[in-house]
Amino acid sequence: MENVKKINSRQQVLNHVPQDGGAIIGVRGYLVGVIIAVNYGNIITIGRDPATCNLIMEGDFISRTHCRLSYNNGTGLYTIEDRSTNGIILPGGQITKKGQVVSVAGGTHICIGTYSEELLLR
């Protein structure tokens, strides 16, 4: 146990995210305050169903499998594939449709299904 580093703040967690990876940060809603590292090549599946998703969210507007997200450290872009009924709200209020794939830059805020579920892609 003596080798375990204590992490006391969100900033410390961000400091431990690998340089060649990104992070999903819960800004508002079910995941507020949560930080998840997104390593290059990993796919994060977001939704309500623990059988098909590795990032679980709750809420009336969250689909069983809402979206798939990956990060490309070469470009600094996130790729998001919408698999939902209610879409992903992008900057400017654009709402994705089921099956649509979009790329967004690090630093982008997205909302999952509703404005009350906000994530920052860092």
From TrEMBL:
Domain of life: Bacteria
Domain FHA per the UniProt entry, residue ranges: 44-95
Record protein name field: FHA domain-containing protein
Organism per entry: Coprococcus aceti
